[in-house]
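Hi P.,

Sorry for the delay on this. The queue was packed all week, but I finally got your sequence through. Input first:
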Amino acid sequence: MSVSLFSTRNLVLVAIGIALNVALGQAVSFLKLPVFLDSIGTMLAAVLCGPVIGALTGLLTNLLWGLLEGPTAAFFAPVSMMIGIAAGLLAYAGMFRSWWRAAISGAVIAIALSVIAVPIRIYLFGGVTGSGADFAVAYLLKVGESLFGSVLVTVIGTNLLDKIVTALLVWGILRGLPARAVSDWPFLSHSR
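Then the structure:
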C-alpha cells in the first residue's frame, strides 16, 4: 500500500507526537529534572514515517510550545528537527531493530543535536535556559570550566541520558504494537 507523505494518517501521527512531546516535556520541566523526555513523539513519528515527518513533528512541537509557554522552546526548533531527521535515518538503517541498537541510536542522536543545541544555548541564552540542566552548567562554571565547555558537557551529558531513554521507550512502544497494526508504516519495516 502506497501512502502519501502527508497523508491523513501521517498528519494524525504528527499531532499525536506533538501531544506526547508537550505533555511529557511539561511534566519534566515542572519537576526541573536534568532530562527532557520531550521528543518521544518526534522519534516515534520518525521511526514510523521517516525523517521528514519526524522533523515536522519536532518543528511544530517547538513552535507550538513557543507560542504557549514563551519563545525559548521555539528557538530550539532546529534541535527538534535534527532529532526527527536523525531518528528517521537511523530507523531506515535498521537501528531500532533491537534494544541495544536503539540505545546506540539515542547516543548518536544526542551527539548530532549537540552540534545545533550548544550554539543556541550559548549565543541566544548565555548558557541558561530555565531547564533543570542549568544546575549542571552553573556547577561547571563555578569549578572553573569555560562557558562553552560547561554547556557542551551539559548538553551532551543530559541528552545522552535523555535520548537513550527516549529511544529505548520508542523501541519498547514499537515492540508492544501488534504486527497487523504496524504492517504498512513505511519505515517500520526497517525497524522490526
